[in-house]
Amino acid sequence: MSIESLKSSLPDYAKDLKLNLGSLMNEQLLSDQQKYGCFLACAHAVGEPQTLTALQAEAEEKLSPEAIKAAKAASAIMGMNNVYYRSIHLISAPTYKTLPAKLRMNVIGAPGIEKADFELYSLGVSAVNGCGMCLDAHEAELRKHGLSAEQVQAGIRIGAVVNAVARVLAAEAVTATAPA
User: Fold this and answer.
1) Catalytic residue among 52, 131, 135, 164
2) Of 83, 95, 113, 130, which residue is most buried, by most CB within 10 angstroms?
3) Any catalytic annotation for residue 38?
């Protein structure tokens, strides 16, 4: 499945998503490794088959095996971290904020690609998963690495659009198979 077939599989009511997917694919603020890695990480985070298949096929044409592995690793580690840190943030008792996480996160320190690119993938996934604490942490790291606010925003926009596309396709799949 290609990006074009992914766009064409979206219903008419999701025309804005088609347009946003197209414009983000043509985004020039990010390098190909940043852009396609972020798309792949977010697609893995949402896990919807059509979205994941199309974006993985696109990424495989543009990314090195190391970048593909890093995108998947960002999705995996943020799947854990986003739940943990969002929970710590939401619990009102201050004790939990002072306790060590005691969760292995080695890939963050050695992702196998440029640290800033991995941080961007992690930011996109954190946007999908809705963890404000992680968004703050990754945004700060990206800014330290010299990314502009517009580049950071592009990563968030990728997460938002991938999430929306996946949700529409998942809902359409359910309604297509539901008994009348």
Assistant:
1) 131
2) 113
3) no
